[in-house]
Model the fold of this input.
Amino acid sequence: MRRVAMTDILTIAMPKGRIFEEAVELLRQAGYKLPPEFEDSRKLIMDVPEESLRFILAKPMDVATYVEHGVADIGIAGKDVLLEEERDIYELLDLKISHCYLAVAGLPGTKMNDVAPRVATKYPNVAAAFFREQGEQVEIIKLNGSIELAPLIGLSDRIVDIVSTGRTLKENGLVEYERIVDVTSRLIVNPVSYRIRDEQIDELITRLHEVVSVGGSLT
Amino acid sequence: MSRLFMFEKPLGMRDTLPELYEKKYRVREHLADTFKLWGYQLIETPTLEYYETVGAASAINDAQLFKLLDKEGHTLVLRPEMTTPIARVAAAKLLEDDLPVRLAYSANVFRAQQREGGRPAEFEQIGIECLNEETIAADGEVIALLISSLKKTGLAQFQVSVGHVGFAQELFVQILGTNGRADVLRKFLCEKNYVGYREHVQSLNLSSIDKQRLLKLLHLRGGEEVLNSAADIIENGQGKKAISELQELSEVMKDYGFDEHMKFDFSIVSHMSYYSGILFEVSAGNVGFPIGNGGRYSLIEKFGKKASATGFAVRLDTLLEALGGGPPENDSHCIFFSQERRKEAIRLAQNMREQGNQVVLQDITGVHNLDAYTKKFAETTFLIGGHSNEEGSHD
Done:
């Protein structure tokens, strides 16, 4: 929980993988000078002293955790993560990158088991809440990846997973049954940082907002 | 269930070892001493309360309450905060004369872990309540006492963010017409979900001026100047009242000379449903969680007495983290003695203790590793052997 004592440096938690490159591109468009080798580095902590920024690289699912505990001031996290984790953080800006959605999928033409329908997912909270709102009690099986496997080999009737192009579903012979919610990446901020470092953070938000919604204004 | 190892404790329960205890003790003293100087009297309430009364009146999430059953089958809770028990005892006993009452407390509260470790489930809250006092001077006094007591602990950098529950609520009702519609927006603010708030505002069938007013709310934070910006987006009634209360508060804080520690933030709304007026949060730059919070509340009404109150609670664990620093100074002294000089050693210890020194009296034959043990003390004296006039070595 203890933050490094560098009061002027803003720490940003970035998700590794797919979203990272898009987010870096966005920051560059917003005028932040990030070194060219930024994307290729395998370091987990990268300092950019010229911009008074420090980046930490985390698993996408963990970004909100770092921000909630205040070891990162800011984070870039998918809405899917925010829905699943329900962390106490400010969700300040829709960065409109990494568009995808959460959906219910399964083998075509199948019905859910009447007695104990089973749903495999990486998002147990989102999945449970969704089916509860549909008036259905399901049993959730938590998986960490290759969710499409579950209905194919009889582990579950349905899956709840992130879909971007739908290709993975199609290639595995699965169909989408319901769309739960659209997902994009969000800029999130620790509540204390949001108060104490208001000027720095407001500036970052204004600059990023100009890039993500050309023409629109925050107020 | 797996067998428990002897070292295990329930999730979120922590031991306080001597070094931390000492630091905690000193910080608690600084806070409590300041409270007393301002005329606040310390009280204690029971650790266990009824779920139906205090448990239900408390704004702490039900899932975070530790519950147990008494012999009659009543559900009990370990108190999750102190404001509700104090409201209970105030309504039942202390407000009979209809006079202002100033109380303080320092107590452990209990909130079950919901997700993971990294946070204590039992922690000490230290705070005050100013009951049956409705003036803005009282709101100001509470914030000034918060600032004054934090300064006493040596905390250098902190900020009190002040808002008003009445403002956002009134703005929403003025623009949207009904409480139900206002609640949708309020929920987004509560969840700190500004993206959802903006999307919802854009989706509403409103004039662009009204949409601007709603969006502007999210940016109403900063110094005294935001009070004017806030006045621009609200029409008459309760909203203006909120602003005039904050203006008055700002003047009160200037009279105390504490205005530099304070900022306004109109987007602060608490999930604590009982807040009814000015509310605030205090943060230090180096810790990710707020140190404390407070505000004006109407909770006492839930216990059958109409009275307004204001107060704050500081989390001692978060404050200690914000204070940082190394271990407390060790000025303890050890007198090692052998049997024949025991009497002399006891005399010496008595003398030193009377002068306020910390003295450990230790029979030298009771320590196996003397080198390691002497390192624990700032100073040592050896009264060993037959020569009763000669004092041993001083470190």
Residues 161-259 of chain B form one domain. Residues 390-395 of chain B have pLDDT under 50 and may be disordered. The interface with chain A takes residues 118, 159, 161, 191-196, 199, 212, 215-216, 218-219, 221-222, 263, 265, 281, 283-290, 321, 324 of chain B (CB under 8 Å). The CA atoms of residues 31 and 149 of chain B lie 5 Å apart.
